[in-house]
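hey m, so remember when u said the tokens were messed up on ur end? i reran from scratch. heres the input so u can diff it against urs
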Amino acid sequence: MARIPIAREDDPATPPEAREFLMRVKRGLGEVFNSIRLFANNPRQANAFIDFVRSLRHHNSLTPPLTELAYTTGSVTNGCYY
């Protein structure tokens, strides 16, 4: 079974680019989730993804309630009940 390594910012074996990405996330969120640690295996794509999510969340013309409604509608449409 193939496994994706989980990068850690305190591991000396973690490449500098991945460590920088993880520290960016930690500064922004206050913590780093394991799902984000998986993204750190490709820091270039990870940064692009984080920038994309940030633009959706913070740079749209929807009010916070409408943004939440859009997220909920997308989740229901895709069968993501969590």
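this time it looks ok to me. The chain has a mean pLDDT of 88. if urs says something different then somethings off w ur setup not the seq
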